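pasting for the record
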Amino acid sequence: MSQIGNIMDELYAVIEDRKQNPKEGSYTNYLFDKGVDKICKKIGEEAAEVIIAAKNNNAGEIIYEVSDLLYHLNVLLVQSDIPLDSIYAELKKRR
C-alpha cells in the first residue's frame, strides 16, 4: 500500500497553516497573496512540465514535476476551502 496519503495530509496541513498563520518570505503565502489566478497559472506551468518530463522519459524529472504539481494543486484546494477528503470521496465514487 502506498504511503502518499500520509504525506499529502501533512502537506495539506502545512499549506493550511500558512494560510491561517502567514510567514514572511513564504512561497505559499506569496501564492495566497497573489490569488487564484496566480495559483492556477502555476498549476498550468507545472502540468506542462510534467508533460515535458514524460515526453523525455525521465523518471526522476517526472517525479520532481509531479511533486510540484501536487503541491500547487493542494494550494488551490486550501485556497478554495476544499478538504482532501472531498477529493477522496469523489475518487471513491468513481471507482
